[in-house]
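thought: user wants a sequence for this fold. calling inverse folding tool.
action: design(structure=
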C-alpha cells in the first residue's frame, strides 16, 4: 500500500525592504500608532496600514502580545530542586547556588 501525502500550499506574502522594516518595528513596538509607524518607514498612513493588514490577513502576523514583568506586577516564582552536593560536584554547584541560598522574604 502506497501512502500519498499532499503538499501544503501555504500562501506567502512577498516582502520588500519596507515590509521588513514594518515587521521589525512591530516586533519591538506592537502598539505603535499607525501614523507613527508610517512616518518611521516614510509611507502615507493608508499605504502603511495596507502593508500591515496583508500579513495579518494571511497569518504572517498571528497576534499581538504583551510581555509581562513578573516583579513589577508583584508576581513571584518559587521552586525547589535537589543538587548533588557531595564529592567532586560540590565545587561546581556552590557558585551557582549562592543566589538561591538567600530567602527573599
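)
observation: tool returned 105 residues.
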Amino acid at each position: 500500500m502506497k501512502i500519498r501525502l499532499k503538499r501544503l500550499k501555504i500562501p506567502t506574502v512577498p516582502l520588500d525592504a519596507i515590509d521588513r522594516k514594518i515587521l521589525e518595528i512591530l516586533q519591538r513596538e506592537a502598539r505603535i500608532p499607525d501614523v507613527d509607524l508610517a512616518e518611521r518607514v516614510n509611507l502615507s498612513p493608508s499605504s502603511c496600514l495596507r502593508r500591515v493588514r496583508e500579513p495579518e490577513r494571511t497569518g504572517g502576523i498571528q497576534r499581538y502580545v504583551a510581555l509581562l514583568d513578573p516583579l513589577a506586577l508583584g508576581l513571584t516564582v518559587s521552586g525547589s530542586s535537589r543538587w548533588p552536593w557531595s564529592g567532586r560536584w560540590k565545587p561546581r554547584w556552590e557558585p551557582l547556588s549562592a543566589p538561591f541560598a538567600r530567602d527573599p522574604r
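thought: summarizing for user.
answer: Here is the designed sequence. Residues 17-58 form a domain with the Arc Repressor Mutant, subunit A fold (CATH 1.10.10.10).
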